[in-house]
Amino acid sequence: MRLQDKTAIITGAGSGFGAGIAARFAAEGARVMVVDLNEGAAQGVAGEIGGIAQVCDVSSAADVAAMTQTAMDSWGRIDILINNAGITHMPKPLEEVSEEEFDRVLSVNAKSVYLTARAIVPHMKAAGAGAILNVASTAGVSPRPNLNWYNASKGWMITATKTMAVELAPHGIRVNAVNPVAGETPLLKSFMGEDTPAIREKFLSTIPLGRFSTPDDIANAALYLCSDEASMVTGVAMEVDGGRCI
Q1: Could you read off the pLDDT of 123-142 as tens digits, one per residue?
Q2: 16, 27 in Cβ contact below 8 A?
Q3: Which of 46, 50, 66, 48 minimizes the C-alpha distance to 58?
């Protein structure tokens, strides 16, 4: 029960890494808000773990404000924020990515971090404590070709993590990131372009441990970084990547 009585908002928690983190946090004693654009998915995960389901487009200031207000009304405080919601564009040459695709990737992967910080950091400052975790990617450290603007958005997230950590440390707020390698999530097919045995084999050949990451892998890292065990850890971007970035 390493998160006993803690409260946690997890975005993009209706599936994939976010759902894995939500389940693990609830099992460790946290009260969890399962945030997702897909209402049915959010309700499904929340029902399984005894959490609160919240529909939210994390690129919308109004939606993020409503999410924050619901959390404060329900709990009176927000101890943990996990910015997990993310999207990508399909693999293609960088000049062929449409402006609409670019805007959506940067809105969901980057602007959302700004919006949640603007809404939630004041509450954490008032409490003198808090933990924020940004789910970035190995793509922000060791980019793959043809995912240019997705890579850039995750690099932005890593830099945002470090500058947030420096600024918020005096207020008792820790900010870290986790960098997963591709995993068995709804985004996997988008990263690969298409899902075939040959493409999977080629993708896995770049990961020394020889497998994709799982929601449990990321949940374990998130649990440590958001728990009091990591009370001296801030501004790190932890690679959970089977050695890909070596």
Answers
A1: 999 999 999 999 999 999 99
A2: no
A3: 66
